[in-house]
Amino acid sequence: MSDLYAVADFCLIPMGTGESSVAEYIAECQRILQKSGLTYKLHTNPPPKILTPRPRRSGYGTNLEGPWSQVSQAIHDCHAAVHAKGAPRVATDIRIGTRVDRDITPGGGNDGKVKRVEEILARD
Fold first, then answer.
1. How far apart are CA 23 and CA 52, in angstroms?
2. CA angle, corner 94, sides to 48 and 67, nearest 5?
3. CA pair distance 51, 34, nearest whole angstrom
4. Contacts of residue 27, Cβ cutoff 8 Å, sequence gap at least 6
């Protein structure tokens, strides 16, 4: 079987930095993701009907999708980069979904899920 197409959601948490903000570390991870060539998106404002009754900003996670091995490597590389920036510990929560019952257009896995929910809600 070829490499599974993975749609991941992960939240990387630098620990032991002695700083109240971890934005510099997260920016470093985002740089890694830019270089990876994978489709990714830092969580931002969801549409008002999705997940919450009002828009909100959430910087607590990133959607990432592509071949399983490349997604895993990108998360590994984020860990390595955040350690290299000085974080002695890094914890990451990861959810990964795959499906083999239909083709997923590369880069459209997460957007396709959101679009489908929006279509259902638009019927209300």
1. 24
2. 95
3. 27
4. none
Say how far apart CA 17 and CA 107 lie, in whole Å.
Answer: 33
**Residue 79: left (phi > 0), alpha (psi -120 to 50), or beta?**
alpha
| pTM higher than the cut 0.90 | no
Residue 87 has a CB neighbour count (10 Å cut-off) of: 22
According to DSSP, the residues that pair with 94 across neighbouring strands are 10
Task: Calculate the CA 105 to chain-centre distance.
Answer: 17
pLDDT tens track for 65-104: 999 999 999 999 999 999 999 999 999 999 999 988 887 7
